[in-house]
Design brief:
The structure holds two protein chains of two kinds.
Chain A: E1 4-5, E2 10-14, E3 19-21, E4 24-25, E5 32-39, E6 46-52, E7 60-61, E8 64-69, E9 74-79, E10 88-96, E11 99-105, E12 109-114
Chain B: E1 3-7, E2 10-13, E3 19-26, E4 32-38, E5 44-52, E6 55-58, E7 64-70, E8 73-78, E9 87-94, E10 104-105, E11 109-113
Parallel strand pairs in B: 2-11
Antiparallel strand pairs in B: 1-3, 3-8, 4-5, 4-9, 5-6, 7-8, 9-10, 9-11
The chains are: A mainly beta, B mainly beta.
């Protein structure tokens, strides 16, 4: 059964606006980690941000922040002040402690930043 | 520092031919190793992962197999390719045992089956 859901196949956003990419997950494990990756057209996978299930604060990395709502099982990526270079595919991923070595991905959201 | 190498970068193969994609990691020992497949415009599907030499977990059996003959080497194989095997194959590694350890990916292998 699919455990990571990204409901936005594609998004178009004006440059300099903030962007929220949605991710919901399903797990019964109390200990898990959530990741976001960026995939430009070159195909490389770039790690953006990590959130642990026991982390008290939302993770932030520069212009990236993770809006973690544990009760809703939601881990949305927020990109502030979007740039043309942010145009890419974005993937949400999860690692469960009881299956610590298995990491699964959502289907991704293709983000287009408009000039 | 750790590096991951994956080859070949591109491959065009006829249906029914065999496949071998290789991945090696440098600068670390006993990594967790992963093979993912990405169909055109789609998400990453976990195919195999390995936590040690000879230990392979399969998520999508189909006609693909994986082997880990050495600690830092991971090989994806097929005896007879299908059209549906076309896609972008990504090898990745991580340190095991902790949820915060991220996946680091290779540059990928683009396979076209004709």
């Amino acid at each position: 059964a699919q455990k990571i859901t990204q409901t936005q196949p594609g998004m178009f956003v004006q440059e300099k606006e903030a962007v929220t990419l949605d991710c919901t997950y399903d797990t019964s494990d109390p200990s898990y980690g959530l990741f976001w990756y960026k995939q430009p057209s070159s195909g490389e996978m770039i790690f953006l941000i990590y959130q642990g299930s026991y982390d008290q604060q939302n993770a932030t990395e520069g212009r990236y922040s993770l809006n973690f709502q544990k009760a809703r099982k939601s881990a949305n990526l927020v990109i502030s002040a979007s740039q043309l270079g942010d145009s890419a595919m974005y993937f949400c991923a999860m690692r469960e402690a009881e299956r610590d070595d298995k990491i699964i991905f959502g289907k991704g959201t293709r983000l287009h930043i408009l000039p | 520092s750790q590096t991951i190498h994956q080859w070949p970068a591109t491959l065009v193969q006829p249906v029914g031919s065999p496949l071998s994609l290789e991945c090696t990691v440098e600068g670390t020992s006993n990594p967790n190793l992963y093979w993912y497949r990405q169909a055109a415009g789609r998400g990453l599907q976990l195919l195999f992962y390995s936590v040690g030499i000879g230990q392979i977990s399969s998520e999508v059996p189909q006609n693909l197999s994986a082997s880990r003959p050495q600690d830092r080497q991971f090989i994806l194989s097929s005896k007879k390719l299908l059209l549906s095997d076309s896609g972008f194959y990504l090898c990745a590694w991580s340190v095991g045992g902790s949820g915060a350890n991220v996946l680091t990916f290779g540059a990928g292998s683009r396979l076209t089956v004709l």
